[in-house]
Amino acid sequence: MTHGVIHLENDYSEGAHPAILARLADENLRARSGYGADDACESAAARIRGAIGRDDADVHFLIGGTSANLIALAAFLRPHEAIVCTEQAHINVHETGAIEASGHKSLPFPTTDGKLTPSMIEQLYAKHVDEHMVKPRVAYISNATELGTVYTRGELYALKDCCAKLNLLLYMDGARLGAALAASDVDWSDLPRCLDAFYIGGTKNGALFGEAMVILNESLKPDFRYLIKQRGGMLAKGFLLGYQFDVLFEGGLYLDIARRANGIADGLRGVLAAKGARFLADTRTNMLFPILPDAWIAKLRERFAFHDAERVSSTESAVRLVTSWATPESVVTEFERCVNQLR
Amino acid sequence: MTHGVIHLENDYSEGAHPAILARLADENLRARSGYGADDACESAAARIRGAIGRDDADVHFLIGGTSANLIALAAFLRPHEAIVCTEQAHINVHETGAIEASGHKSLPFPTTDGKLTPSMIEQLYAKHVDEHMVKPRVAYISNATELGTVYTRGELYALKDCCAKLNLLLYMDGARLGAALAASDVDWSDLPRCLDAFYIGGTKNGALFGEAMVILNESLKPDFRYLIKQRGGMLAKGFLLGYQFDVLFEGGLYLDIARRANGIADGLRGVLAAKGARFLADTRTNMLFPILPDAWIAKLRERFAFHDAERVSSTESAVRLVTSWATPESVVTEFERCVNQLR
Amino acid sequence: MTHGVIHLENDYSEGAHPAILARLADENLRARSGYGADDACESAAARIRGAIGRDDADVHFLIGGTSANLIALAAFLRPHEAIVCTEQAHINVHETGAIEASGHKSLPFPTTDGKLTPSMIEQLYAKHVDEHMVKPRVAYISNATELGTVYTRGELYALKDCCAKLNLLLYMDGARLGAALAASDVDWSDLPRCLDAFYIGGTKNGALFGEAMVILNESLKPDFRYLIKQRGGMLAKGFLLGYQFDVLFEGGLYLDIARRANGIADGLRGVLAAKGARFLADTRTNMLFPILPDAWIAKLRERFAFHDAERVSSTESAVRLVTSWATPESVVTEFERCVNQLR
Amino acid sequence: MTHGVIHLENDYSEGAHPAILARLADENLRARSGYGADDACESAAARIRGAIGRDDADVHFLIGGTSANLIALAAFLRPHEAIVCTEQAHINVHETGAIEASGHKSLPFPTTDGKLTPSMIEQLYAKHVDEHMVKPRVAYISNATELGTVYTRGELYALKDCCAKLNLLLYMDGARLGAALAASDVDWSDLPRCLDAFYIGGTKNGALFGEAMVILNESLKPDFRYLIKQRGGMLAKGFLLGYQFDVLFEGGLYLDIARRANGIADGLRGVLAAKGARFLADTRTNMLFPILPDAWIAKLRERFAFHDAERVSSTESAVRLVTSWATPESVVTEFERCVNQLR
To answer: How far is CA D144 from CA C336, D114, D120, D206, in A?
Structure first.
């Protein structure tokens, strides 16, 4: 680890966790039916149903996060129905208007930590009173959020109660669900109790690619596969997704990967905190947003690759450090060495 | 090869050509930028530009065929513009209305062989005369077609001339382009001369997944990546597509795979022809549609797995046999043995 | 009536029936709430409910036919659901892809008389078997059809039974519903028994503009006004529509207008039949499609204005003659005089 | 004027200005071609071209404001292109997501007076940097705004310069354009110099219904009528719109109506100002938003009908007073009498 920069740019910079790659190689010449109608997908779905404790859940394997969100919301909403979310929500900022291209308006609420609250939902709901305005129907949350923060169990149940009261659906974008579960008191079994639907992110947690959509609410289940196909999200070799999630949910690998990445991020956080750094948001997941002097940032970039987050003052910026299954264990020691040299 | 059925169901029943899998394994721990902005994609794009002899082509790597078609047509068309195609066109029948979900009407023309002709284009064009009707703007062809037939060089140039005359774009769905090129007098270099855009199918020609969109017409190039992202087609780990097409276009593997699959299909065709079978369409690619007595079909199914195509008479059906990079060489001998036993 | 041409071009060439214009003038300075939430709309809706004998029907007043169709189908369908119709259907040909722009595919069936049959519905339904294809959900009929033909009571009930069996909705475009009712054994009270929703055309039956959407099926009622507003179909001065339909459904004016127009068309038909003319379709409504020698057509055009329908042979064309509330009674006598001079 | 309430609810509570109604009656039995291809529309378009001093402008007559906005933006934008606007923008709040239903995202900026500034445009533009986000392409302004405020000539030209610099189109929603022109230093001839397209509102300025879309930018002109038809905005009896705008632009009636309504509003404003009332926004158009004690509001409602705007404190609310061509001249005197009685 003496040569080259160490990558802390994101959690999708490398291929797949070795156990996943091994499974793909092992299955490579085995013929299976197309489009996800195969035994590998069925096995993976069964494992996910087991993990969340709900035999009746519908599980669909999808290609990526934006695709998962646009398919779900196109499937769940009538044309005049809208989505309540935070200003930072991935669907609101970073999906090139995919939701609007499906015909739906998002109603963003400003936040500092990326977390939606019942109060925000209620305020947006109260402003949409008649047919001259869109009708809020889904509350969208990301967990972990786009800022790396997470929902507590109490917060999730409070959102559920709020949505139930207002007849809204609660949908969770779980692109980084592993990181969230590994960093909070929320358990797999809490998810079906609170959510109408959610997806379990594979791409950012060790898979080559792929997300698992889980639908709990009976009214949202019919014809979901039509929407997958129509929006270009049905993989011909759907078994590839089955293999990957089967590995991730066999023996707890999914959370193991997340815990390891969170753990390394904790190490980095400790180093920065010891150095007196502030953070843009208080995170316990695999994403950190330390606020650092520009000179320090430049110096750290000689050894580590990472993205800017935002300009904070004339001499400081927040940067984003992300860890993953592929981040070397040794990174904390090396990071500490480099940080300790900063003046 | 004495145990189990032999799969002739389709060309996407297995994983990836071994050379592709090896490359994925080799690159697995190498970190690269996301979303296709990496050197592997650039290398693969350069090889494709080289193959077609057009340095100025834009090349984008996409996830699947339906996704590729809907992204391209959403990018190329204004809302009132329509697509001229055959009745059998994949976009017209087998994409769950993906094109319509993007807002566009397809104008299908009945055919027996799945091939669009200048006369069909002209007839549809002539019927759409004013703003009460959609405006034809793209002619969509599949090559190979959904029936396994192919366009000759002369036919392609005739379509190009017709489209130029009527100010239509000519777009080719190349899900099985390898099979088509390997079975016709059309050359890579003919494609940019005739087409405004097309995609090169990877999924059905040895890749795990992936298609390469090639855009020649300058007016169609701007902001294409926005559409990829908006429609859920931008893979986070885009380099996975780069690896695969880099392998496919390094040293001619793409056509080698197609030639081999076509060759095996030729062998099967010869066996059937010798037995006196008729065919639904005259194909030289990796798809055969023999018309067989029901009893024969049942007998063959004891040894081979394949799909029904259509009912032809009270005692006969057409079935679909498909070969691929994964079809064992020995299949022809075994098929001949079985066919010769049919009475 | 000795000067100028006599207009037989269509049934929307003039303003409004005098009774409607008088009502608009009478109400002009009376202030009412906007967007259709006024007592004139309520009165008109009550009269329509009375006419069809269904107190529970939802009635919405809309601006025009294409707008009515696109709003209804956007409201009734999920994104993957499709519309079964005839090849000549207004939505399939003459609405510039409005349905597709709302995201839905139409599945047209070829006909000679513009009428949809249970057999056509069943054939289209049988071809759409899984999630790779759109899912037929609405059967769309026009009555009178685009060719001026009408459905009998028996045919309507047969369509209803077919749709019920296949879980399809039956929707009727009634742009020329007056003409149809006046020319068939179908009664106002048959409509709610057969149809899930339909609209009553005002534009082509004496109104300045406007159509009345009637929704019977409970599941189609919620939030319909959101769709009206979202698709630009909610008139600020909605009471204008209320006034018009209130007049049309007060004392039977709606059918009186249609009977009169049909009657004049009958007169023209008789003249032509006596002269030995054939017709493109057998119609009893206010549209005729006589097939005439080109020389006769040219001669008739010196006195009458009308549209071409289609070329029938090298020396003959079908033309379209349309009558309306504004067609002078004297037209039949004058037409007979002119036709009798043709050689 | 001693009986009944006086209506100050909005500017579309009655029918049409008497001159318009007279013209409709006069033309009622004259047959004209459908869909706006008639000499009345041509005459009205010519008058509008004359008013703005641009012979090359395309003019299209549309049915209503939401319809006009959604047609224009659907015609002008590619799928990934977005609209910069104020938080209060009609398209953002009061069109039930019509723009999103056409596939486009609006990017609202918070304001207190409803006016978009170059700085707002620049800030929104600067945040949308790559293909993961929508691409700002149109700046949408309403003039008068939703709060009754207006743009000065200087502000309009500054917006134009900003848009030109950033390659954005500048589009104006002129639902209340008459009120704006009558209340500002902006002249008809300024509009084509600043705007790529705009519509002239008829519905809220004396017409029964109708808006005139004016397109200046050559690149936005092609095929606009296809979009009108596709979105349900093409009136069969298009000549009705021609008659109305022909009257409005013959001898300056359009601005006369607006000046009269603004003048009455000025009278009401004076009465309130003399009483010491504050206003939500500083307006000189036909809409006032005085902030009044709840007791006063209740008292005024005995004599005048008007809408609430928003709650301002525990004892005060802002209400909305709107005048129109139909507001009686005597209203100011009566209003003064009532206001003077308030304690």
So the answer is: 58, 9, 18, 16
Arithmetic mean of pLDDT, B205-223: 98
D18, D96, D208 ranked by CB distance to C240: nearest = D208
Going by the DSSP 8-state scheme, the letter that residue B340 receives in this structure is H
Read off φ and ψ for residue A188, nearest 5 degrees: -50, -40
Token pair in block for residue D333: 């005197």
Report the sign of the C-alpha dihedral through residues B320, B322, B328, B329, in that order: positive
Give the residue-averaged pLDDT of C307-332. Answer: 95
Homologous superfamily in CATH for domain C6-13+253-340: Aspartate Aminotransferase, domain 1 (3.90.1150.10)
SS3 content of chain A, % helix, strand, coil (to 5): 40, 20, 40
pLDDT band at D4 (very low <50, low <70, confident <90, very high): confident
Q: What is the pLDDT of residue C3?
A: 57
C-alpha distance from A100 to closest chain B C-alpha (Å): 9
Q: Which amino acid is at B166?
A: L
In chain B, the residue whose alpha carbon lies closest to the alpha carbon of A99 is B230
Whole-number Å distance between alpha carbons of B219 and B208: 31
Taking CA–CA distances from B225, the nearest residue in chain A reads A96
CATH of domain A6-13+255-340: 3.90.1150.10
Mean of the pLDDT values across residues C246-263? 97
Position D44, amino acid: A
Q: How far apart are CA B238 and CA B34, in angstroms?
A: 6
| Beta strands per DSSP E along chain D | 6-7, 58-62, 81-86, 106-109, 135-142, 169-174, 197-201, 211-215, 278-279, 287-288, 290-293, 304-305, 307-311, 316-322
**Residue ranges of chain C assigned to CATH 3.90.1150.10:** 6-13+253-340
Which chains are within 8 Å of A by 3+ CB pairs? B, C, D
Contact assignment for C131 to A228 by CB distance below 8 Å = yes
Report the percent of chain C where pLDDT is more than 70: 99
Q: Contacts of residue D7 in chain C, CB cutoff 8 Å? A: 31
SS3 B109: strand
Query: Which numeric CATH code is attached to B6-13+255-341?
Result: 3.90.1150.10
CA–CA distance, D93 with A134 (Å, rounded to integer): 8
Please report the ipTM that was assigned to this predicted complex.
0.97
Chain C nearest-CA distance from A226, in A, is 5
Residue range(s) of every CATH 3.90.1150.10 domain in chain B = 6-13+255-341
Query: Which part of chain B is CATH 3.40.640.10?
Result: 18-248
Instruction: Kindly state the DSSP code that residue D168 receives in the 8-state scheme.
Output: -
> CA–CA separation, B269 vs B336, rounded Å?
10
Non-local CB neighbours of A140 within 8 Å, separated by 6+ positions: A69, A73, A83, A84, A85, A89, A91, A106, A116, A171, A172, A173
Task: For chain B, state the CA radius of gyration.
Answer: 20
Specify the pairing of strand A287-288 against strand A316-322.
Answer: antiparallel
Question: CATH 3.90.1150.10 residue ranges in chain D?
Answer: 6-13+253-341
- The correct CATH number of D6-13+253-341 out of 3.40.50.2000, 3.90.1150.10, 3.40.50.1700, 3.30.70.270 is 3.90.1150.10
> Residue C61 belongs to what H/E stretch?
strand C58-62
Tokens of B285: 């690619």
Instruction: Give CA–CA dist C217/C200, Å, rounded.
Output: 16
CATH number for the domain whose boundaries are D18-248:
3.40.640.10
CB contact under 8 A, C79 and A80: no
- Read off the pLDDT of residues A19-30 as tens digits, 9 standing for 90 and up: 999 999 999 999
What is the mean predicted confidence (pLDDT) over D107-125?
Answer: 97
CA dist., res. A135 & res. D246, Å (int): 39
Q: Which of B46, B71, B72 is nearest to B57 (CA)?
A: B46
pTM over 0.95: yes
